[in-house]
Amino acid sequence: MKRAFWQGVLPRMLCVLFAACPAYCSEYFVATDGNDSNVGDINHPFKTIAKGVSIVVAGDTIYVRGGTYAYTGTSTAITLPSKTGSSETNRCSLIGYNGERAMLDFTAMTGTAADGLKINGSYWYVKGIDCKGAPHNGIKISGGSYNIIEFCSSFENRNTGIQLGGGAAYNQIINCDSYYNCDVGYGNADGFSPKLDVGTGNYFYGCRSWQNSDDAYDGYLRPSDDVNTTYEHCWAFKAGYLKDGTVCSGNGNGFKMGGSDTKLLRHNVVLKNCLAFQNKAKGFDQNSNKGSMTLYNCTAFSNGGNNFSIATSPLATGKTATVTNGVYFTGSNSLGTFVVQKTNSWLSLFTVTSADFVNTDPSAAYGARKADGSLPDINFMHLAAGSDLIDGGTYVGLWYHGSAPDLGYFEYGGCTTPFASDLNGDCEVDFLDYALLADGGAGDLRDIAQFAIEWLTCNRDPSSECWQ
Fold this sequence. Notes:
Elements: H1 3-18, E1 27-30, H2 49-55, E2 61-64, E3 67-70, E4 78-80, E5 92-96, E6 102-105, E7 117-119, E8 124-127, E9 129-132, E10 139-142, E11 148-150, E12 153-155, E13 162-165, E14 172-174, E15 177-179, E16 192-194, E17 202-205, E18 208-210, E19 217-218, E20 227-232, E21 235-237, E22 255-256, E23 267-272, E24 275-277, E25 284-285, E26 293-296, E27 299-301, E28 308-310, E29 321-324, E30 327-329, E31 334-335, E32 340-342, H3 431-438, H4 448-460
Parallel strand pairs: 1-2, 2-5, 3-6, 4-7, 5-8, 6-9, 7-10, 8-11, 9-12, 10-13, 11-14, 12-15, 13-16, 14-17, 15-18, 17-20, 18-21, 19-22, 20-23, 21-24, 22-25, 23-26, 24-27, 25-28, 26-29, 27-30, 28-31, 29-32
Helix pairs in contact: 1-3, 1-4
């Protein structure tokens, strides 16, 4: 191991494990039966999140007790601003207390531009919060960077569930759900949108998007250019359908990788182990994007348009399109000759039938998340024993089980549900993963605190499902 592990990562890990917050950090509580004139401790909580936000400093935590918090008015309900001294290791936090779910209900709000929860600042950590019914976006990161949103849901908003813009960069959206979002004209409400004037380096892990009136994930740019976005273990399904299951006039794409008014802008997108199924239109859609598009081990099933659609050329100078270890079943593809393809299921090496899969019924994908926020265990589109897609892939730097990587989202014989902190893919979160972190192998991983929590959970409780 490099010395950086012992000099950097280990001290931070020990701080997390044995002293979660320095002595100067404060904790405040918010509850539906609280009062903003209280002192804000667990026995005398505040009434509103805004009160907690107004007094926290870098490193402080606001715990929100379970229950429904109803909002009215015509302007954004809650804003998380920048706090002096905030950093990666000294964040302000807004967290559902002890696993309790706080529902922020914006349904009674009016106006067209009012967001529910807006993050203007940087280095905020938001976890365990549900947002519903905002006139505009349920959650909006507007200009803020290096924020983490984890295990949150945003639904039934009148525009996008979770949107990033205003130069928002290097944010992490981890294990979040966005669904049933619908705007009046059906053409703007996406599940997740790193789009328009978004910044670079944003990362989505373990997210689900379903039945949003427009797209599941939308990377359309105006005027941002040459920005990078990564999706890993994310699911996109039933885009272009309403809550009641009827189809609407929205675009209905799963992963819209880019696009722009001029059709010249570059959104460099990496998708690893992503799943797109039963969307009204395309599963993985270039949408005139001129940036690089890299798709590794992605699976598409029964999308209304092409499952994989990257057909518009040329790309911008120096940009490439690569699809490796991809799988689709039921439907069609549209891939230009400029797309570099390796060991995909539609190539002549393979024959794909329903017998290649354990199950092609996606109903389990709607199931509840696990207590830690990770995706539910499903056998939908898992490879069946004897499939020629097993061990048929190309190594792309992702962990695999067997003599070679498999094709598609799910590795046969591997973890049922992966953990973000399992960097070497051995279904355990341990010191080997910390070594990779020290060596710079973590990529856009969530912060060290969550890393340490997962390691503790795995090693204290072998039934926690990270041991598989």
